[in-house]
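Q: Focus on the chain.
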Amino acid sequence: MVDVGTLSLIVLLAMFALLAIGMPLGFASAFLAVVTLVLKFDVDILFRTFGQGPLSVLGQAVYRQMTNYVLISVPLFIFMAALLERSGIARDMYNSLNVWLSRVRGGIAIVTSIMAVIMAAMSGIIGGEVVLLGLIALPQMLRLNYDQNLAIGTICASGSLGTMIPPSIVLIFYGLVTETSIKALFTASFLPGFMLATFFLIYIIVRTQMNPALAPLPPEDPDAPKGGEKGMMFLGFLAKFTMYFTGFLLLRALFFTVTGDNVVREGVDPIVLGMVSDIPWIIGAFAIAALLVFVIIGRERTAKGWDMGKGLVAPIIVIGVVLGSIYMGITGITEAAGMGVVAVFVIGLLRREMTFDIVWDSLMRTLRSTGTIIWVTIGAAALAAAYTLAGGPTYVANMIVNSDLPTMGVILLMMLIFLIMGMFMDWIGIVLLIMPVFLPIVIRLPPEEIGWFGSIDPRFIPIWFGVVFCMNMQVSFLSPPFGPAAFYLKSVAPAHISLTDIFRGFLPFICLQLLALMVLLAWPPIITIFL
């Protein structure tokens, strides 16, 4: 029998060794789970009675993960992302954004970042975003002689925003493992996610204004609207979309009124934007939008603005279906993912782009991606169960708590471990292996000592730590030597762009990610603003 301290060192070194020789994380974790039990317990105990003893704990842990209903949302979100990537929805969205920002310095890089935010809010899948942006935006930026490092960094850093912006699969897995409300995690991550996206946009704007040679302006189209005229057309587009949206809300509220579903009842949450008291406000918004369209801006100008911006409509509908159904209390996470798939599929049919080949290819890609995630989940769940049975989490917790480090020193040490592990290991393995050890430690820390500005309610500590972890994983997607975003982009980048060039382009954006991480650590209440 090996003591738990020696066992912890053996497992850690063996994990790095197995990953270094190329063994997949799922198989490495499962192998080390059995090794952990063999070293900690007598081999005879493991096999003496079938279905009982330490080995049965592994089976129970894997079964518990595999039968979690929320896990079904993962392949659904992956399938939705695959359909989006193969259809023309993302391409049209890029073209519409580019129309409005084409004459802005660094406009294509800004469009790329905004497009990444919208795509993150649609599917929460990181790899597909980077590949799609690499196919659509990178050739454009290189053709216009954008700085190569700026183009690469913008695509990969922005394409990784799916980690932070709901519906993030990283947050879903964190919620599954730690039994934290996924809806609360989504709500808490909104502001930090958009804060990081804003950091990227500010960096692009400031950098290109200071050095215009980094982002030359494209040739001017003499027929394109300019200045105030373009602004009025954009306002017309927004007004027309608002008119359609408020019209839908009005019909919805009237339907609930006729059926009696929006009657105020004790103990029943009111229908969001569907109560009788909401109808006057909805009518007022509809009237203002109609006034803008038909009187102030004019039908002709509004029609031109709609043609220029209609590529944004489909993505907004998908986001509304997925996130709206969650936050309006219509469905849970899994059902929202299914509704998102249906929305993308129907939009594709209406656009006459949804062919059998696209659906089949998307299904095959979903099967491969889900298979990888499931095997990693099985292996990591087994190793986490075996290590817990051996007393590892208690040993690590006592070692950290008794280290005489201040509260923030303990948290910063965890952040350093996350950063190092993120360089070599997939985020799924980190969630399943490290989080059951670290989260109980964080919960035991004095809540008044967490952060440097403001205080956080002890109830929200698991949510805050989950958001902080996701921000940390943002860094891991760009961190050498195994930053996955680099390999995603390399698969579609021109041959003259090497992996070294790609990692070099990441450096300023990694600094911005670390800055955002420090904001979350220094000011924890930022995650509770919308809770």
In short: The mean pLDDT is 84. Residues 356-389 form the longest helix (34 residues). Residues 35 and 516 are 39 Å apart (CA to CA). The chain is about 75% helix and 0% strand.
